[in-house]
Amino acid sequence: MTTSDGLLSVGDALERLLAEFRPLESEVIHADLALGRVLAKAIVALIDLPPFANSSMDGYAVRAADVAAASAEAPVTLTVTADIPAGARPPAIALAPGSAARIMTGAPLPPGVDAVIPIEATDDARSSAGAPPPAKVRILNPVALGANVRLPGEDVRAGVEVLPAGHVVRPAEMAMLASLGRNEVAVIRKPRVAILSTGDELVEIAEPLAPGKIRDSNSYALAALVQTYGGTPIRVGIAPDRVAAVRERLGAALAQSADLILSSAGVSVGAFDVVKTVVQSEGSLDFWRVRMRPGKPLAFGQVRGVPFLGLPGNPVSAMVTFEIFARPAILKMSGRSSLAKPQVPARLLEEVSSDGRESYLRAVVQREGAVYTARLTGGQGSNLITSLTRANALVIVPAGVTRVRAGETLMAWMLHWPEQVF
Ligand code: AMP
Ligand code: MG
After folding, report:
1. CB atoms < 10 A from the CB of 124, how many?
2. How far is the CA of 314 from the centre of ligand 1 (A)?
């Protein structure tokens, strides 16, 4: 649906775009490479966790009934008949009544044991490393049945699904995979995203600036964004504003098996905007004018069946439209189901204005007690890279709103949280 001015709303453009993407196929990788990846298959436990009954404390394994009457004034004395360090084989012989086994955290419990007395509740002054256990130990407290005992399967039971397909691997999932001995795991493969810069004015990062030239910053920014959201960036370089050059570079993107081709610039209404022409001849193109600021012109289509997204050339527009459109497409291909950007309500510290298009203003959002506040990073020109280097958020002025006063609250997309490391 287009708005009265003939422009697509951001929401409608996003819906049309996302309809063209599906999660990619799976691949099997080593668990240590799985951080941030999406599980393609459920993880089912083949063993119990913990795998055996063990102690949660350094202390003495006992029969709770033996020490029911123990107190500091009238300690119960037990004979120490075993010494069980972590890593020991589970003892085969049951603990005899009236005796105790010195046991360390994580060590297997002998049969017959139903509680562990922490060392602090005994007269065994914590002995130096390697010292043998005493012949007898005096117990100063009674202990509840099952105290300080970790039962097999209390965390995970063999046979249960511990992680469903679609679950994202975070550090905690790494711990689970390692505990279960899953050193190989099926995940959705990473999307390969080709990045093409277009423009006669562009030179590579290390080249000197001849008059009239600027360095290609978009391919660096876009490659970093692709990486941030879990894709593999493939920079295919700079194409001057000529049909043959753009066609040749798009061919290079296809040769690298891209799942998505991103270009920047050359999709506007300028006299040398040739990208549209090439995409139309090699595939198809929908040119969208989206009711947003920055980044009104956006091209979406396909080149020989590979989705193509033509972003605006101005650095801020390219990065903001990436966040809005390319980011969720990459996340969807990666198998993620949550595509939303984290956002918070932020109270404006200054008045902001807009021309009525949905506007993404660069801002510093900070937590002040229970609320977040937002201050713009200065000039909002879409060529001003500093407006983004100084920002940690995009404050969104909804479509149709032209002025929002200081003290009012708008939603802010968090690019980075104030507490984040970088
Ligand atoms: P265009 O969309 O081609 O009209 O470009 C819009 C603006 O973005 C112009 O000022 C371009 O010089 C600038 N621009 C285009 N591509 C890049 C790029 N890769 N890096 C930095 N600026 C660019
Ligand atoms: Mg241009």
Report:
1. 22
2. 5
Alpha carbons 261 and 253: distance in angstroms, whole number: 7
What contacts 336, CB < 8 A, 6 or more positions away? 38, 168
Which tokens sit at 89?
């084989």
Query: Which residue's CA is minimally distant from atom 12 of ligand 1?
Result: 201
Confidence tier at 4 by pLDDT (50, 70, 90): low
Phi, psi for residue 84 in degrees, rounded to 5: -120, 100
Q: 237-270 pLDDT, tens per residue?
A: 999 999 999 999 999 999 999 999 999 998 877 7
Asked whether the beta carbons of 376 and 352 are under 8 A apart, the reply is yes
- Could you tell me the two tokens for 418? 């104030």
- Inform me whether the pLDDT recorded for 2 exceeds 70: no
Helix spans in 211-306 (H): 218-228, 243-255, 275-282
Q: How distant is the alpha carbon of residue 80 from its chain centre?
A: 50
Measured in Å, residue 203 CA sits from the centre of ligand 1 at 11
pTM: 0.94
For residue 52 the two structure tokens come to 């055996």
Q: What is the mean pLDDT of residues 21-39?
A: 98
Residue 125 predicted with pLDDT over 80: no
Burial class (CB in 10 A: 0-12, 13-18, 19+), 19: exposed
Q: How far apart are CA 385 and CA 334, in angstroms?
A: 29
Answer yes or no: is the C-beta of 317 below 6 A from any ligand 1 atom. no
**Those residues with Cβ within 8 angstroms of residue 226's Cβ, 6 or more apart along the chain or in another chain:** 193, 195, 232, 233, 262, 326, 330
**In the chain, what are the domains?**
10-24+190-333 (3.40.980.10), 37-49+158-188 (3.90.105.10), 54-150 (2.170.190.11), 343-421 (2.40.340.10)
Ligand positioned closest to the Cα atom of 205? 1
